[in-house]
Amino acid sequence: MDKLIELVSTLASGAFIAVLASWLTNRSRNRQEQQAEIGALRVQADAMTVAVMELQGAAAANRLLWEGPAERGRTFLLTLLAFAGGAARARIAGGTDVQSGLVGFGQAAELLSRERVASKQTVAAVREPLARAATAAAPLMRCSDPAVVAATEQLLNALADVENTARLEPALEAFGRAVNAATAPRPSWWARRRGVPAG
User: Fold this and answer.
1) What is the pLDDT along the chain (199 residues), one digit of tens a residue?
2) For the whole model, what pTM was predicted?
3) Secondary structure of the chain in the HEC alphabet?
Protein backbone atom coordinates (compact mmCIF):
# COMPACT_ATOMS: atom_id res chain seq x y z
CA MET A 1 0.00 0.00 0.00
CA ASP A 2 2.87 2.34 0.81
CA LYS A 3 4.30 1.67 -2.64
CA LEU A 4 0.96 2.52 -4.24
CA ILE A 5 0.69 5.77 -2.28
CA GLU A 6 4.26 6.64 -3.21
CA LEU A 7 3.53 5.88 -6.89
CA VAL A 8 0.36 8.01 -6.88
CA SER A 9 2.18 10.84 -5.16
CA THR A 10 5.02 10.65 -7.71
CA LEU A 11 2.53 10.66 -10.60
CA ALA A 12 0.60 13.56 -9.10
CA SER A 13 3.71 15.63 -8.52
CA GLY A 14 4.96 14.75 -12.04
CA ALA A 15 1.62 15.81 -13.55
CA PHE A 16 1.65 19.01 -11.52
CA ILE A 17 5.20 19.79 -12.67
CA ALA A 18 4.25 19.05 -16.31
CA VAL A 19 1.18 21.32 -16.13
CA LEU A 20 3.21 24.06 -14.41
CA ALA A 21 6.00 23.79 -16.99
CA SER A 22 3.46 23.93 -19.84
CA TRP A 23 1.74 26.96 -18.31
CA LEU A 24 5.05 28.78 -17.80
CA THR A 25 6.15 27.96 -21.36
CA ASN A 26 2.89 29.24 -22.83
CA ARG A 27 3.02 32.35 -20.68
CA SER A 28 6.60 33.06 -21.72
CA ARG A 29 5.76 32.51 -25.41
CA ASN A 30 2.71 34.80 -25.17
CA ARG A 31 4.80 37.48 -23.49
CA GLN A 32 7.48 37.22 -26.21
CA GLU A 33 4.83 37.46 -28.94
CA GLN A 34 3.30 40.48 -27.22
CA GLN A 35 6.72 42.16 -26.98
CA ALA A 36 7.38 41.40 -30.67
CA GLU A 37 4.02 42.95 -31.62
CA ILE A 38 4.75 46.03 -29.53
CA GLY A 39 8.19 46.36 -31.11
CA ALA A 40 6.73 46.03 -34.60
CA LEU A 41 4.04 48.61 -33.81
CA ARG A 42 6.68 51.06 -32.58
CA VAL A 43 8.73 50.59 -35.77
CA GLN A 44 5.63 51.09 -37.94
CA ALA A 45 4.60 54.18 -35.98
CA ASP A 46 8.11 55.62 -36.32
CA ALA A 47 8.00 55.03 -40.09
CA MET A 48 4.64 56.81 -40.28
CA THR A 49 5.89 59.77 -38.23
CA VAL A 50 9.03 60.11 -40.37
CA ALA A 51 6.92 59.96 -43.56
CA VAL A 52 4.61 62.70 -42.24
CA MET A 53 7.61 64.88 -41.37
CA GLU A 54 9.11 64.33 -44.84
CA LEU A 55 5.80 65.26 -46.41
CA GLN A 56 5.57 68.42 -44.33
CA GLY A 57 9.15 69.30 -45.31
CA ALA A 58 8.49 68.75 -49.01
CA ALA A 59 5.31 70.83 -48.85
CA ALA A 60 7.15 73.63 -47.01
CA ALA A 61 9.97 73.57 -49.58
CA ASN A 62 7.42 73.74 -52.38
CA ARG A 63 5.72 76.69 -50.71
CA LEU A 64 9.04 78.51 -50.25
CA LEU A 65 10.25 77.79 -53.79
CA TRP A 66 7.12 78.56 -55.76
CA GLU A 67 4.32 80.10 -53.76
CA GLY A 68 5.78 82.95 -51.73
CA PRO A 69 5.25 86.60 -52.65
CA ALA A 70 8.97 87.02 -53.38
CA GLU A 71 8.88 84.12 -55.83
CA ARG A 72 5.78 85.44 -57.54
CA GLY A 73 7.39 88.87 -57.79
CA ARG A 74 10.56 87.30 -59.23
CA THR A 75 8.53 85.40 -61.81
CA PHE A 76 6.64 88.56 -62.75
CA LEU A 77 9.88 90.54 -63.10
CA LEU A 78 11.54 87.81 -65.18
CA THR A 79 8.46 87.67 -67.41
CA LEU A 80 8.62 91.42 -67.99
CA LEU A 81 12.33 91.21 -68.78
CA ALA A 82 11.78 88.29 -71.17
CA PHE A 83 9.02 90.26 -72.92
CA ALA A 84 11.17 93.40 -73.18
CA GLY A 85 14.21 91.43 -74.37
CA GLY A 86 12.25 89.56 -77.03
CA ALA A 87 10.56 92.74 -78.22
CA ALA A 88 13.89 94.59 -78.38
CA ARG A 89 15.54 91.80 -80.40
CA ALA A 90 12.64 91.77 -82.85
CA ARG A 91 12.76 95.57 -83.16
CA ILE A 92 16.53 95.50 -83.79
CA ALA A 93 16.01 92.86 -86.47
CA GLY A 94 13.66 95.32 -88.23
CA GLY A 95 10.29 94.06 -87.00
CA THR A 96 7.21 96.21 -86.63
CA ASP A 97 5.63 97.13 -83.31
CA VAL A 98 3.15 94.25 -83.63
CA GLN A 99 5.91 91.78 -84.51
CA SER A 100 8.05 93.04 -81.63
CA GLY A 101 5.11 92.59 -79.23
CA LEU A 102 4.41 89.09 -80.53
CA VAL A 103 8.06 88.05 -80.12
CA GLY A 104 8.05 89.58 -76.62
CA PHE A 105 4.89 87.66 -75.70
CA GLY A 106 6.46 84.50 -77.11
CA GLN A 107 9.58 84.95 -74.96
CA ALA A 108 7.44 85.63 -71.87
CA ALA A 109 5.26 82.58 -72.58
CA GLU A 110 8.34 80.38 -72.99
CA LEU A 111 9.73 81.56 -69.64
CA LEU A 112 6.38 81.01 -67.91
CA SER A 113 6.14 77.57 -69.48
CA ARG A 114 9.57 76.58 -68.09
CA GLU A 115 8.61 77.96 -64.67
CA ARG A 116 5.38 75.97 -64.77
CA VAL A 117 7.22 72.75 -65.64
CA ALA A 118 9.71 73.32 -62.81
CA SER A 119 6.86 74.06 -60.41
CA LYS A 120 5.05 70.85 -61.39
CA GLN A 121 8.25 68.85 -60.90
CA THR A 122 8.59 70.26 -57.40
CA VAL A 123 4.97 69.43 -56.64
CA ALA A 124 5.60 65.92 -57.97
CA ALA A 125 8.40 65.61 -55.39
CA VAL A 126 5.66 65.69 -52.73
CA ARG A 127 4.23 62.52 -54.25
CA GLU A 128 7.11 60.35 -52.99
CA PRO A 129 6.75 61.29 -49.28
CA LEU A 130 2.98 60.94 -49.65
CA ALA A 131 3.47 57.41 -51.04
CA ARG A 132 5.80 56.61 -48.12
CA ALA A 133 3.15 57.83 -45.67
CA ALA A 134 0.52 55.63 -47.32
CA THR A 135 2.90 52.65 -47.26
CA ALA A 136 3.70 53.25 -43.59
CA ALA A 137 -0.01 53.52 -42.78
CA ALA A 138 -0.94 50.17 -44.36
CA PRO A 139 0.25 47.90 -41.50
CA LEU A 140 -1.08 50.36 -38.92
CA MET A 141 -4.54 50.09 -40.46
CA ARG A 142 -4.42 46.34 -39.71
CA CYS A 143 -3.40 46.85 -36.06
CA SER A 144 -5.40 44.95 -33.47
CA ASP A 145 -5.86 48.14 -31.43
CA PRO A 146 -8.90 50.06 -32.76
CA ALA A 147 -7.58 53.36 -31.34
CA VAL A 148 -4.40 53.06 -33.44
CA VAL A 149 -6.46 52.27 -36.55
CA ALA A 150 -8.75 55.26 -35.95
CA ALA A 151 -5.83 57.61 -35.27
CA THR A 152 -4.00 56.40 -38.39
CA GLU A 153 -7.11 56.97 -40.50
CA GLN A 154 -7.52 60.46 -39.02
CA LEU A 155 -3.86 61.22 -39.78
CA LEU A 156 -4.20 60.02 -43.38
CA ASN A 157 -7.26 62.23 -43.84
CA ALA A 158 -5.32 65.19 -42.46
CA LEU A 159 -2.46 64.49 -44.89
CA ALA A 160 -4.83 65.16 -47.78
CA ASP A 161 -4.33 68.84 -46.94
CA VAL A 162 -0.79 68.88 -45.59
CA GLU A 163 -0.77 72.69 -45.55
CA ASN A 164 -3.57 72.74 -42.95
CA THR A 165 -1.44 72.49 -39.81
CA ALA A 166 -4.46 73.25 -37.63
CA ARG A 167 -5.82 69.86 -38.69
CA LEU A 168 -2.56 67.95 -39.16
CA GLU A 169 -0.89 68.72 -35.81
CA PRO A 170 -3.80 67.46 -33.65
CA ALA A 171 -4.09 64.36 -35.85
CA LEU A 172 -0.38 63.66 -35.39
CA GLU A 173 -0.67 64.15 -31.61
CA ALA A 174 -3.70 61.82 -31.44
CA PHE A 175 -1.75 59.24 -33.42
CA GLY A 176 1.17 59.49 -30.98
CA ARG A 177 -1.13 59.10 -27.97
CA ALA A 178 -2.84 56.06 -29.49
CA VAL A 179 0.48 54.38 -30.26
CA ASN A 180 1.85 55.18 -26.79
CA ALA A 181 -1.25 53.68 -25.19
CA ALA A 182 -1.03 50.57 -27.37
CA THR A 183 2.67 50.04 -26.62
CA ALA A 184 2.54 50.82 -22.90
CA PRO A 185 3.58 47.91 -20.68
CA ARG A 186 0.64 45.82 -19.52
CA PRO A 187 0.27 45.47 -15.76
CA SER A 188 0.57 41.97 -14.36
CA TRP A 189 -2.45 40.13 -13.03
CA TRP A 190 -1.28 40.82 -9.49
CA ALA A 191 -0.79 44.54 -10.17
CA ARG A 192 -4.24 44.79 -11.78
CA ARG A 193 -5.75 43.04 -8.79
CA ARG A 194 -4.09 45.46 -6.40
CA GLY A 195 -4.90 48.47 -8.66
CA VAL A 196 -1.25 49.38 -9.26
CA PRO A 197 -0.72 51.19 -12.61
CA ALA A 198 1.78 49.77 -15.12
CA GLY A 199 5.19 51.33 -14.99
Assistant:
1) 677 777 777 877 778 787 777 777 777 777 777 777 888 888 888 888 888 888 877 777 766 666 667 777 777 778 888 888 888 888 888 888 888 888 888 888 888 888 777 766 666 667 788 888 888 888 888 888 899 899 999 988 888 777 777 888 888 899 889 988 888 877 666 666 776 555 4
2) 0.57
3) CHHHHHHHHHHHHHHHHHHHHHHHHHHHHHHHHHHHHHHHHHHHHHHHHHHHHHHHHHHHHHHHHHHCHHHHHHHHHHHHHHHHHHHHHHHHCCCCHHHHHHHHHHHHHHHHHHHHHHHHHHHHCCHHHHHHHHHHHHHHHCCCCHHHHHHHHHHHHHHCCCCCHHHHHHHHHHHHHHHHHHHCCCCCHHHHHHCCCCC
